[in-house]
Amino acid sequence: MSDEKLSSDKDELKVESDEQHQGKEIEINEKNLPSKAAAIHEIIRVEGEKELERDSFALLWSAVAAGLSMGASLIAKGIFHAKLPDTAASFLLENIGYTFGFIIVIMARQQLFTENTVTPVLPIMQKPSRQNFILLFRLWGLVLLGNLVGTGIAAYSFIHMPVFDDATRAAFVSIGQSVMDNSSGEMFANGIFSGWIIATMVWMMPSAGGAKIWVIFLMTYLVALCDLTHIVVGSVEIFYLVFNGSLPWQQFIYPFAIPTLAGNIIGGTFIFALISHAQIRSDMTHQPKKNHRVEGSSPPPDK
């Protein structure tokens, strides 16, 4: 009986795709695909299917770990903010700290919500079935919950553990307050660009090879330089204000979390992922048949 239940649970977590119905695997051989972009698309789609089918507790714990790790961004940026002199160059150096959490989370393969606005979305765009949407919303819900729990624990520990000096703690407050200086509309608009940049980073990773850490650094450094809003990094910063009494709970939810989350999803999913999928769909639709003559090939011999 237990074996039947286990088999049923696995079927429920199975992503529906055209390849599954045909008993095939997703084609990721660039030689058999119309473009390099199509090969990248299929690599990410394979990864997305794996993420959608992962166990719920594995997703949740990985997301909690990512939230904790993202606290490194606030630590590094806060220390730089406290220790560097007040000059124009200090702004450039301080924002290097913002990249630390992303590097840890992505290189450790932990679950970050904004990465999941692209990777698991591609299988849904390929096969927008009811089951696939259920799997996507399950993934998004678990990862977002885990990220917020992790960032909340990180922020709470920064306040109550005797690790940081007064100058660094003041820097943490200043960083969080600078985020809250944005209106809800600015949070939303900044979140769109942030989501788009992180989605672009995810798209670049399969081609990055040994330079992955530099891709992560450059793209997340751009997010920091532009003072864009990000639902996970921003949660560490705003939770710090909430837990030290500088900000009421309601203001974490709005004007920060809801507009930022919506912007990140729109930037990552409805702009980047849709456009990227559209170009691949066009490539596949207009791909010449394999039995067509390749231009420049030798003509058939005269009879």
UniProtKB/TrEMBL annotation:
PANTHER family, per database record: FORMATE TRANSPORTER-RELATED, INNER MEMBRANE PROTEIN YFDC
UniProt membrane topology term: Multi-pass membrane protein
Gene3D superfamilies, A to Z: Glycerol uptake facilitator protein (1.20.1080.10)
Region spans: Disordered: 1-28
Major location (coarse): membrane
Bilayer-spanning residue ranges: 57-76, 88-108, 135-159, 187-206, 213-233, 253-275
Endpoints of the signal sequence: none
GO cellular component: plasma membrane
One example GO MF annotation: formate transmembrane transporter activity
Protein name: Putative inner membrane protein
InterPro entries (UniProt xref): Aquaporin-like, For/NO2_transpt
Pfam families: Form_Nir_trans
Keywords from the UniProt entry: Membrane, Transmembrane, Transmembrane helix
Keyword Transmembrane annotated: yes
Subcellular location, record wording: Membrane
